[in-house]
Every structure is written in C-alpha cells, then in structure tokens.
C-alpha cells in the first residue's frame, strides 16, 4: 500500500490516457445515444375505506400496511397488468420493442432460452398427470412440441422490453407509488405509463368487486342460517308455552328488556320467584305514583305520562307471567328460561348481522382503494438532464482504470524500484545508483566518480566506501566480492568506480581482480589487449606484482583474465589452493581487493570462492531484475548472507527517482551537482 503513490506518480501516463479515453467514450455516448424521454404517473393507495370498515367493525380485513403497498409494486410489473397493456397498445408491432424488419431481433438468447424452458416445464406439467405416460425430451423427439408461435415470441419480446424500460418505486410518502416509463417518443412514454396505471386501477376495482360479492354472499348465507335458527328457537318456546297452558307470556319480548333508560330492567329472575314478584310490585307502585303526579301536572295525554303507563302495563304482564311460572316445577321453569334465553340470543345475533349487512350494502361501489393522483404527460426534455455528471463518471472511470492498469503493470513486473522494497525483501541496507551518461569527452563511465565527484551516483559509491572502511575497522575486511543474481546488472561499473574512489585516498592501494573467467568484462573494458593475468598468477602467485595493470588516471591496479576462450574449470580454479595463496599475497600489498564474481544464478563459481572473501556487495538492476530471482539467488548463497555488506540498486531512472522520492522535498538535492 505504501508503494501505491509513487507507482501512480511514475506511471501517471496511464491514468492520464485513461481519463482522456473515458471522456471520449462518454462524449461519444452522449452524441450517439438515442434521445430517451421518461414520463411518470403517480398512484395513491387510499386507506380510508378499509380503515372505516375496520373501525366500524363492518369488515374484519386490516387496512393497508407497508408490506401490502410494497407488494403492489410487484403487481404493477406483473403479467396481469403488463400483458394487457402490450396487447391494447399493440406494442408487439412497435419497432422500438421488437425491432424493424431485417434488423436483429431484440429477443435475446436469454429470453429465448427462458421461453423454451417455460414451454418445456409446461409440457412436463401437462403430461405428468397422464397415468403411464412418459415425456421424451431428447433432441429431435420434441421438435414439434417446442415450436414457438411467432406471435408469442413477439409478444414476450415486447413484454421484456417494456419491463426493462419500466420503473416502479415508492415515493417519499409511503402510500404513493410512482410509475415511470422511458421511450424514444415522449408521447409514447406518457401513454404507456398512463395505460399501466389505468390497467392497475381496473384490476384493483375488479378484485374489489369480486371480494364485495363474495362478502355479500357470505353475509346472506349467515343471515339465512341465523333466521332459521331464530325461528326454530321461537317455535320451541311457543310449543312449550302451549303445552303448559302459559297464557299471556310474550315470546322474546320480556327477555330482551326495555329500550330506554327509564324502563324496567330485564325480567329474567336473579333470585327466588317470590322475591322477583315483590320487586316488580314495588317498581309498579313507584311508577304509578310518578304517573299520577305527572298526570295532575301535565295531563293524561302527555308523552311522559303515556310512557310511564306503558311501562306499568309491561310490569303488570311480567307479574302475570311470573304468577303463571310459579305454577311450574323447578325443571319446567329452568327449561322455560333456557328456551327464552336461546330465543333472545338468536334474535340479537340476527339483528346484528342484518345491521352489518345493511351497512356494507350502503357503501358506495365507486369508493376506490387506489386512484391516480397524477397522470403522466409527455416530457419536454430528455431524461439525461446532467451530461456533466456522465462526463464526470467517464472521467473517473478512465482515471481509475488507468490507475488500476499502472498498479497491475507494476505488480506483474515484480521488480525493485525503491530501497524500501529491497530492505523488505532482503533485510539489508540498500543504496541507489542513478543511471548516468559519460561525461563530455569521455567514452565510458568506469571513472565517473572522478568526472562528476558531486553527483548522487558518486555520493552513493562514497557511502559504500564508508561502509567498507567501517567493516574493515571492525572485522579486518580486505577482500570484497561484487556479486549479482544475473548478468548485465552493472557489476563492472560498480567495481571500477568503487576501486577508483577508494584508491583516491592518501596512501591507499586497491586491487581489482577479474574473477569472471567466463565473460571477462572487467578485462575487456579496463585493460583491453593484455596477454597475461589471473591464470598466470594462479600458477605463480609471486608474479602478482608484474602481472597487474595500473590504470593511468585512477592509479588502480587490475589483475585481468587474459585468456580469450572460456575456462571449463573456472569454479575449481577460483576455489583452489592457488587462489587462496594468490589472495594471501595480495593482502600483504593492498588495502582492499575487489573481486568481480560471476552471476549467482548462472554458474556456481561464487559457492567455491566465497570462503576466501570477507564481505560481499550485491548489485540489482533497477526496474529489471525480478524479485523472485533475487530471492532465489539469496537462497542459493544462504551461507554467506551474513557477509553481504549492502545492496546496490543500480541504473535507476533519475526522473522516476524524483517522483518516487518527492516526499523528501527539493532541498535534498542541493548538495548534488549534475
């Protein structure tokens, strides 16, 4: 994650090109996409009717809740609404929905597969009920059954296209549903949105009529049943009264009780018969006294006096009935009261059901549960009202795609570009050597530290020099091996410039040994044309002084490898006793001996010579050497890992370094020249 910023800074061209491409595509889309117009209608789910029915206990069904309204969204986009709209508006003949003749049909492969699958399932369901029948769906056997009617295909195509362009959703108000439709024709968009709304309203009304008819039938059946039961109860009570000669008892009247606040209470006994008669007589006397007093004041024809006289007559009949009941035994009295109670209860149930039926029938049939509050009208502008938003989306998409490409490219490259990456992979200190060009008038960069002493390249080599001198004071290091995982990583440049810088110190003597007996790069670049060198010194170590070649400018001694052809036993020569004796002789004369060793992953020479070398410098080419290769090389020389003094990240791109190290600020380079 920490590497992402500098990766994007280094690969800025990819996000830039991606942003340009995204803007281009968004602009092309805006210029070429057909104009689309969206029109909307709104439906209000009215809860007042159902709430009224429930509050007054006319209907037991609850009012609409949020789940019910959310379910209506699916009803609006169901085949029961959409298919009739397609047929009424003849959308299966509209080119916008089914394409023009000669054009590829908009009925895609997914819809075709879906239609075929539904046909197969229908056939299976149809023939599954035929006892003993089997369906052979093998290729060729069901061709006739799977042939689809072209009109069916067109209709399903139109339905699918309509559903793709239809949007049904709830508004901020929970009981308002918005029906939106997009079309290239603004009038068509409004017509289809209104047609769907109208079809939904008619569907709701039909469903309500069916429900009302079913409720009315249920209530009517209930009334008939209660009427029959009430008549049976009255008939049983009347038969009992006739059988026991109970003359004057009113069936169902006394048990129901009075209908006003001043009337006498129900005559159903709650104590002994004598107590009830005494209570009725007391009430009769009170009513008579009150009636006589009012008659003197208001007259006999006054409404209050008439009502009191009627109540007195009612109580007198009740007392007469009680007197007749007292002539019955306890069992007959209990049966009489039971028959009276049943008859009264059934009368009350019948009256309540009749009242509820009348109230339901009085509700106006045009009271809708849903109605349109806003019809769709042809829009005056395109649906894409924010082209800048689309352009911004294209820009962001391009930027993100370019950034992803840059990061993916870096991840796939899997190379080293920063010292932190090297430290994370190897655990060693790392210095960066920028890629440099020969100084004016020079052919090579073997002595670049002398040509440009104040550059970052020279300062990095000077840093390695300080590490070597510190290691020499600590552990007596003299022999230093320069190694790499593969060839052409810049070992020779590092060897020559490091030796030149170290040899520039007062009374310092440095020797370079070309230990690469395969390619001899040091010899070819620093001492071309020599005829004797390392191989001869191995035969006679005492000749070292006369076999070395001193460079004129840097005064560095070089022991070349003069043989032109490859040495077949190079590893054995480097690991021989003669090599050990040669290095012992060199230790006596020189302060530092720098040996260029062949690449680790190419040959095994480093494994044979490493026992004679005190410390190593590992060279990695910036942006080229794979991380996996370096890790594998370190595994190959795991026994010398603790002797690797530092890692040099060589040939780094100066421009990329500036972006990578931008966090250091510009003042970090104030001490560098060039």
**Share of β-strand residues:** 5-15%
Number of strands: 12
User: What does the radius of gyration come to?
Assistant: 54 Å
- Reading side by side through the largest sheet, how are the strands ordered? 5-12-11-6-10-7-9-8
Number of discrete helical segments: 26
Quick description:
The protein has 674 residues and is an alpha/beta fold. It has helices at 4-10, 13-32, 48-55, 66-76, 79-88, 95-98, 109-128, 150-165, 186-243, 253-256, 273-298, 303-325, 330-362, 387-413, 419-426, 448-451, 456-475, 491-503, 521-526, 534-539, 544-547, 570-574, 577-589, 605-609, 627-636, 654-660, and strands at residues 37-45, 166-170, 176-183, 370-374, 430-434, 479-484, 510-514, 549-550, 557-559, 592-596, 615-621, 644-652.
Structural description of this entry:
- The structure is a single chain.
- Strand 2 and strand 3 form a beta hairpin.
- Strands 5-12-11-6-10-7-9-8 form an eight-stranded mixed sheet, with helices on both faces.
- The two termini are 33 Å apart.
- Helix 9 runs antiparallel to helix 13.
- With 674 residues, it is of the alpha/beta class.
- The radius of gyration is 54 Å and the shape is elongated.
- About 8% of the residues have low confidence.
- The relative contact order is 0.10.
- The chain is built from 26 helices and twelve strands.
């Amino acid at each position: 994650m920490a590497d992402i910023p500098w990766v994007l800074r280094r690969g800025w061209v990819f996000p830039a090109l991606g942003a340009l491409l995204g803007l281009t595509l968004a602009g092309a889309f805006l210029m070429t996409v057909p104009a689309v117009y969206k029109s909307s209608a709104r439906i209000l789910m009215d809860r007042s009717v159902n709430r009224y029915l429930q509050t007054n206990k006319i209907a037991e069904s609850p009012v609409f809740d949020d789940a019910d309204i959310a379910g209506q969204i699916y009803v609006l986009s169901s085949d029961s609404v959409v298919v009739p709209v397609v047929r009424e508006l003849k959308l299966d003949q509209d080119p916008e929905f089914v394409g023009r003749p000669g054009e590829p049909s908009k009925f895609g492969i997914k819809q075709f597969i879906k239609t075929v699958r539904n046909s197969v399932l229908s056939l299976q369901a149809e023939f599954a009920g035929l006892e003993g029948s089997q369906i052979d769906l093998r290729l060729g056997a069901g061709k006739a059954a799977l042939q689809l009617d072209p009109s069916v295909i067109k209709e399903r195509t139109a339905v699918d296209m309509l559903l793709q362009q239809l949007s049904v959703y709830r508004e901020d108000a929970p009981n308002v549903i918005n029906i939106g439709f997009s079309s290239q024709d603004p009038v068509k968009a409004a017509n289809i949105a209104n047609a769907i709304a109208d079809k939904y309203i008619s569907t709701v009304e039909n469903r309500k009529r069916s429900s009302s008819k079913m409720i009315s039938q249920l209530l009517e059946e209930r009334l008939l049943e209660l009427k029959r039961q009430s008549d049976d109860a009255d008939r049983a009570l009347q038969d009992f009264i006739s059988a026991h000669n109970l003359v004057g008892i009113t069936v169902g009247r006394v048990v129901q009780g009075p209908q006003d606040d001043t009337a006498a209470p129900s005559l159903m006994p709650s104590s002994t018969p004598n107590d009830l008669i005494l209570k009725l007589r007391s009430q009769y006397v009170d009513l008579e006294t009150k009636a006589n007093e009012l008659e003197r004041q208001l007259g006999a024809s006054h409404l209050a006096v008439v009502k009191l006289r009627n109540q007195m007559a009612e109580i007198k009949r009740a007392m007469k009935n009680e007197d007749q009941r007292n002539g019955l035994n306890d069992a007959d009295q209990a049966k009489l009261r039971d028959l009276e109670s049943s008859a009264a209860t059934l009368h009350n149930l019948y009256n309540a059901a009749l009242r509820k039926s009348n109230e339901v029938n009085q509700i106006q049939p045009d009271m809708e549960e849903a109605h349109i509050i806003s019809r769709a009208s042809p829009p005056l502008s395109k649906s894409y009202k924010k082209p800048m938003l689309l352009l911004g989306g294209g820009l962001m998409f391009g930027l993100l795609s370019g950034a992803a490409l840059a990061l993916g490219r870096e991840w796939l490259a899997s190379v080293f570009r920063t010292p932190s990456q090297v430290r994370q992979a190897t655990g060693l200190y790392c210095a960066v050597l920028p890629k440099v060009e020969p100084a004016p008038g020079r052919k090579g960069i073997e002595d670049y530290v002398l040509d440009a002493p104040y550059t970052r390249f020279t300062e990095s080599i000077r840093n390695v020099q300080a590490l070597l001198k510190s290691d020499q004071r600590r552990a007596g290091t003299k022999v230093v091996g320069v190694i790499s995982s593969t060839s052409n990583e810049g070992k020779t440049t590092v060897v020559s410039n490091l030796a030149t810088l170290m040899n520039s110190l007062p009374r310092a003597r440095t020797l370079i040994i070309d230990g690469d007996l395969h390619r001899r790069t040091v010899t070819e670049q620093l001492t071309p044309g020599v005829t004797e060198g390392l191989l001869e010194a191995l035969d006679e170590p005492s000749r070292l002084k006369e076999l070395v070649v001193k460079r004129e400018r840097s005064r560095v001694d070089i022991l070349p490898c003069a043989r032109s052809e490859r040495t077949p036993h190079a590893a054995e020569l480097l690991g021989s006793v003669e090599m050990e004796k040669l290095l012992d002789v060199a230790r006596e004369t020189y302060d530092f001996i720098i040996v260029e060793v062949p690449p680790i992953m190419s040959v095994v020479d480093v494994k044979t010579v490493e026992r004679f070398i005190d410390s190593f410098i590992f060279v990695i080419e910036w942006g080229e050497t794979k991380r996996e290769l370096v890790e594998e090389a370190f595994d190959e020389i795991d026994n010398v890992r603790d002797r690797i003094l530092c890692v040099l990240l060589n040939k780094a791109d100066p421009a990329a370094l500036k972006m990578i190290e931008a966090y250091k600020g510009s003042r970090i380079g104030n001490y560098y020249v060039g």
